[in-house]
Design goal:
3 helices, four-stranded antiparallel sheet, Alpha-Beta Plaits, globular, 29% helix, alpha+beta, 119 residues
C-alpha cells in the first residue's frame, strides 16, 4: 500500500490562482522524485467544529480558504529519498518561488496506509 504525505494550509482566498500555479510548478517535482500521485484540494465545505476543525488547526482567518493536499508514494523509502531530493533541489527555494500562503501555519505529516478501498 502507498505511503501518504498530507498537508493542511490556510491560503488567502484572493491567492487561489497563485496557489494553483504554485502547485502546477512544484507538484511535478514530487512526481519526478518518485511520487505516484499528487492531489490539491481547495476548501469547499469546511465546517466549523465544536472542539476543533480544519480552519482552527491552521488559524485560518475569514479571508482565507483551507487547502488539503496529499502526495502518494509507492512506499516510505521512496518518500524519504524523494523528500530529501526535494529539500536539496534549488527549484524549491522559497526565495526564488515564494509560497502564496503562510508556510509556518502548515500542518503536515507522513502516514502509513493501513486500509485501502477503491475501484
Amino acid at each position: 500500500m502507498p505511503y501518504i504525505d498530507g498537508f493542511v494550509i490556510a491560503v488567502p482566498t484572493a491567492n487561489r490562482q497563485k496557489f494553483i500555479d504554485h502547485a502546477r510548478t512544484f507538484d511535478p517535482i514530487f512526481i519526478e522524485f518518485g511520487a505516484t500521485r499528487v492531489v490539491e484540494g481547495w476548501g469547499d465545505d469546511v465546517p466549523d467544529g465544536k472542539v476543533t476543525d480544519f480552519r482552527r488547526s491552521v488559524q485560518a482567518t475569514p479571508e482565507e480558504t483551507v487547502a488539503f493536499s496529499w502526495v502518494e508514494w509507492p512506499d516510505k523509502a521512496t518518500r524519504d529519498a524523494g523528500m530529501k531530493k526535494m529539500m536539496e533541489d534549488p527549484r524549491m527555494d522559497p526565495a526564488s518561488t515564494p509560497m502564496p500562503f503562510d508556510g509556518k501555519r502548515m500542518i503536515f505529516g507522513g502516514f502509513e496506509s493501513v486500509v485501502e478501498l477503491g475501484a
